[in-house]
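Hi R.,

Here are the chain sequences for the assembly we discussed:
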Amino acid sequence: MKDDITLIKRYISGDEEAVEELVMKYQKQVYAFAYRMTNNIEEAKDLTQETFIRAIKGLRGFRMEASFKTWLYRIAKNTNLNHIRQNRHHKEIKLEKPTIGNQRGALSAIIDKEKKDHIKKGLDELPARQRLSIILRAYEGLSCSETSKVMGCSEGAVKAHYHNAVKRLREILKEKGYEIRP
Amino acid sequence: MKLGHDDIKEMFPEYLKGDLPEKIKNDVEVHLKDCQDCRGELSFITELVNIDVPDPGDLFWKTLPHRVKGAVEKKRDSRFSLKILLFKQLPVAATIAVLFFLIFTYAKKEEMPELNPFFKDPFTVSVLDYSDITEKDIPLITDPLTIDELYLHSEDLMEYSYYMEFASLSSRELGSLYEALNREQQIGG
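And here is the predicted structure of the full complex:
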């Protein structure tokens, strides 16, 4: 994969193919982020496309000394939050009813699935900033400094949001009777 | 420097990714051996990270770059651009205007009203109506006129009449002309 800045410079100088290379490089990360923000495949697909269109359109205004990845996540964050704000009444995550199978280990698989659904639901109920901090830090693997740039706040604020988010999610699981053993 | 609980917990995403420097990684592991709370949080973060994202399918991954490129090009084409206006459309408009002006001035100079779009001459060829002309009328148009007919026409057009010549004749000359005409009529000339 080529360096981001090289690709951006190629696009600005008129090479349209560079756009495709940039999208291919980051499409999985942007989609995963959108899915974790919305919990819906179709919405995540649309938001991924929208994020890239906005990013490419604004590419000429990108300052080359900044990180393209952080800049792209910032656009993705804004696109996703706008979408969530416009669809405030978005559907609740429905917890699927467990079906008891005969396979060995089926019960533990069901419990595991239920636990994951509760985590997803808990994540969805978190305030936007807490949700963002946990998605960017834990899932997307961004550093504290990168997360602060994407969220547009201080590193201290990111740490606080992240800490509160983890605490709240653990409480939710505890309330539902799931024990996370060390 | 001894790392506290909060510092250790902050590092779990990097620890799980394997991004920590060796020394700090060892410090984290030493701390985890003695701290149940931090081990609990690490287990939770591990559970969290293991929640999969459903794959939208190969078709989506393969077509997305092309769709993004196409959408960006489409939006760029539809948007107003001063650059395009100045460098593409204005020269074309200027060329058309210059051509138009040249035709106009040439038509004016050569008195060709049919080429002049601002001057509507009712007698131009294009506005005349030939619909009432039949085949019988064609010889009248094409056959050469007789001397008398020519004379008549020239009389009409040039305000000149051969009757004016009679006015200059004396009564004697008029009398002899009258006799000559009578003779021609009797002979049948």
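Chain A has two domains: 1-89, 102-182. Chain A touches chain B at residues 16, 19-21, 23-24, 27-28, 31-32, 35-36, 41, 44-45, 48-49, 52-53, 56-57, 115-116, 119-120, 134, 137-139, 141, 143-144, 159, 162-163, 166, 169-170, 173, 180-182 (CB under 8 Å).

Let me know if anything looks off.

Best,
T.
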